Amino acid sequence: MYSFTIPLRRAMVVHSDLAYPEGVAAAEILKVGSNAKADPKQGSGLKEIMSGGFVAGFVALCSSGFHVLSDGLSLWFHVGKGMTQFPIGYSTALVGAGYLIGIASGLAMLVGILIAWAGFVPYYTMTGILPDGMTMQKFAGSVYQQRVRLIGAGAMGVAAIWTLMTLAKPVIDGVKESIAAVSMPDADKGKHRMDIDMSIKSVAGVFIVTVVGLLGIFYAFVSPEQLPIGQTMTFVFVGVGVAVLMGFFVAAACAYMAGLVGTSSSPISGIGILGIIVASLVMYALCSSFGIFSLPGGEKFATATAIFTTSIIMAIACISNDNMQDLKTGYLVGATPWRQQVALLLGCIVGALVIAPVLNLLYEAYGFPGALPRPDMDPSQALAAPQAALMTTIAQGIFSSQLAWEYIYLGIGLGVVLVIIDQILKRHTRNLCLPPLAVGMGIYLPPSVQTPLVIGAVMGYFLNKKLGARADKDAEADGKRRGTLFASGLIVGESIIGVLLAGVIVVSVSGGGSDSPLALVGKDFGDTAEMIGLVVFLATLCIFSKVVLGSKNN
Hints:
The protein is mainly α.
């Protein structure tokens, strides 16, 4: 629900120190011109942003486009009879995001990586039985996908609930303030324009219209099964009710995760796992009570209904992710919240109108595994959609009573332990903390995504510490500013090249060409590309350090 993000703005943006790396990056881009006019001596920051964008764009083009650089390095190690890996991702954008999120979140994610890859993966590969015909590396990968990620999802669920509980008071205060503004319309006259959100009446109106629309869509989805009207309406109201009730929890959790590590690294699929579990359990109870499983195709209907409910939850998660980044940008540049929220609402409407035909076009062109639109299509060309396949597998596992609940329970227990450790650190130390949600993400997310985030966070800590040792406080502030600008440029540069390359690939594949139309080398260049990529990655870190620590006049 779009309306869920509005009461979260004060708690997550105004009264929070969350990083929101993409939001900060966008704000720095917007402030470039105004800074030059306000303080010509300081400079606009265009040099740092453009240099960061050029570096990230060049690296992304060479890796994702030309394939002369690898996007990461993975070293596999035997641990007794088992195996694990030590990965390094080469994403410069994630290094920039890591620099912005700070050392606490970075180290928490590192703890999560160690729990997963120095703990669970070696343990399960040592104690498990290697399937026939499977290499140890593939076995370790399957252990991570099928067991460890479920543990991470369980830990994230507990951490997300705890985070929501800690944010309850500021969220409630924000809602109360909005309600007070309705009963006292003149109160807005004494407010600064940056304190005015959409009125509670407008938010309620958007909410009601959205719920009515969801009820209609859900009815259209269930009615073709020609169930008794009472059962049909029960499925409709319960399905929408589950989506709405989970929606606020999901919106808050995803907003927090986006603020913690950024939208591009936020594990929405982890929230999707929690969503499909809840939706499947509810639909299992309904279908069992109505005898649906005894009907032809009853299990398929239950699975489809659970996935349909989860799709609403996932839409809420995505909207919350992006909207909170945008609201952070607006807060930093001095935007009027209610105007920005209206614009974001229009964006949601336009996006809803555009996404469906685009997805249908992709389906008709390529299909998905197990769901090809034409019988003569090549299954190898289908779009993989691994996260969607995982959620389908979980739903089917629940309805067939074959889901590995023990790993989710283990993750829940681990999440409780992480929350307790974080609270102990906060109460008995001055600066130490261990954000449990970041640790859960460290377990759940692929390590190649997290290592550059951790590297960026650690590098930022030491660079800022070195700047703080300088006697010249103006130089310290200028160095931190240039670091933020360069990190923003890294995020923007890689993102732009990624979008452009996606367009090139779509045009190529649509015309019957390769999915790597710009590749200059073949797959046999992979080992060399890893080494060259590592050298370029280290060079990028050196450039980043030089930008931050360089003289003010550079």
